[in-house]
Amino acid sequence: MAEDFWAPVFARLVEDYEFLDMVTNDTAENDLVSWVKPNRALFARCARFIKKNRVLDKPALAREMLAYARNDTSLRKVILFTWVEKNALTMEFPTLAVTEEIESQLQSGRFGSPAKVRILAKLDPRDGVKPLYERVLATFSAVPALADSGAPHFVDTLAGNSGADRDEASTKLAQRVVELEKLLEEFKTDSRQFKKQLEARQEEIKAQNRRIEDYSRQLKDADAAVQTLKNESAGLLSRLKFLEQQSVQAQPVSEKAPRADVSEQLAAMSEEIAALRRAVDNRETTIRRLEGEKSALAAQQVADSEKDRQLAAMRQRLAELELSAAGAASRLAGHLLSSRREPDGRRNWLFLSISGRVVFVDGSLVNRTALVSDEFCLLYLDSAGRALALESLESDARREICGCIEASGDELFLLADSQSFRVQVEIAASLVETPVRGIWLPEFAERPAGIYRVEALAPHSLSANVQKSADSKQIKTLFRVSHLNFDRFLELLEQQAIWHSVRADGSLAFSADYREVLEPLRMHVRIPRFCDNADCQTRAQAEAMARPSVQGQRCDFCGSISAVTVTEKKQFAGQRVLIFGGDYVGSEYERVLSGH
Ligand SMILES: [Zn+2]
């Protein structure tokens, strides 16, 4: 029965001293002695009831022990739980459904003596069984039922009983003992049988294995025998052939030789031939028989290993399923979002799948492809979710365009072939007004059409001159602004933790090329546009940087749309370009240049 069923019952009973008194009186004397003796204080109180490990007055000892146990919960628990543990048969009663049969069993002592039944009556928490206990206990009423009359202590019911009842009880007990011994014997027999069966099964398996080994061996032997007989038969056949040839040759000789002699010789040869034929026939019969046996053995072996093969097939199928399941989870569609440089100098890219999953992709993996940011691609992952490879989904639609970068307001365009393509990514200022190669991607989902990567066509000429300092004019050019508030700009550098120092001439010194150092600022600073309005121009002065709005653009201060005309557009056509490495630039470049 479940722990939580008994827990509240035991919690109540461990405080019930009348009940505990019954229990203590129903506990074996040596148990009581073993609890009293090690406890000095308790032993001092109880010593008078114990003599040489024998209890002189059990009810009195029980009273004394419980008086002491009022301040010792653990002793009370020991008394209660020892009884519960040692009276498993009695404790079984509350777990059984109440029937007339079970009632008569309880009465007959099947679940223990009347003393135990009295304890049970207090212990059993089921409400519906109270009348049953009352009926059963009433049958014990010949005995002065102290528990029922609320007496403070308990006397062994048997002791107070008449001699006849005692005899009856002991007869019942003896019967019970016999019954139990019989049950134990049956149980032992059963377990012996199970053990035997188990051993028999193991033997069977061993025998089966031995049979399989035997089959294999017999198969081998049969193979060898067949081979030997085949060889023998071949030998006999060749001997037969030889003899036949000889007999044919003997024919012409016989013309000259005496006839009788020849015919004698022929007869002998014929006889030998016949004998050899018979031998060959016998051998062939044997071979056929052995072949038959061999195939029977092979069939038997196949049947024996059928289970193994089924198992192997299932394992393989499982492996395939696992593989295909892994394969399905190993691809993501999405695009490269942005890149960041790790402290150790490696560049990592952030991949965003269409479903919104984010994966970090190592820069070296991206470098192996021609992918640009925002280009839709497939990311292949291994089972641990690490990026393995990237494959463009737009390789058919993307175009490589060569031309010149042109600024128009704060927008950049790639001019090529008298067409202009909007540049959708931040690029280095040094690329403006130089020949470049751009990657154009079509409009797709949220992404507008435009140039998504710009590379200089002669990259080595750009890195030639590193400038670690810049004056405000150069900074203005870099950011393509008309207005620069130097103090605000310095604040900005502080905010972004860009190392710098102001030199005597008012220019700024940096730790590396100023274009490289200042480039990341674009990501963090908003450059407002302003109109001709004097008020707007004053407000623009307070910004770190600002640029005038061009035609069609909105002033960020007053919101009016500017009517200023666009600055003249430069044409790439007619400019001379030195080509470094045709392979690097690609066929597209040649195609475009051929138009100029
Ligand atoms: Zn304005």
Protein model, in words:
The protein is built from 22 helices and 18 strands. Strand 4 (347-353) and strand 5 form a beta hairpin. The longest helix is centred in the middle third of the chain and has 94 residues, at 163-256. The two termini are 97 Å apart. It is α+β, with helices and mostly antiparallel strands. Helix 2 packs across helix 5, helix 8 (100-108) packs parallel to helix 10 and helix 12 packs across helix 13 (259-328). The protein is 53% helix and 15% strand. Among the domains are: 3-161, no CATH class; 206-325; 331-392, OB fold (Dihydrolipoamide Acetyltransferase, E2P), CATH 2.40.50. The radius of gyration is 54 Å and the shape is flat. Zinc ion binds next to loops.
- Category by helix and strand content: alpha+beta
Uncertain residue ranges: 144-160, 564-572, 577-587
Strand order of the largest sheet: 5-4-3-6-7
CA distance, first residue to last residue:
97 Å
Spell out which ligands are present: zinc ion
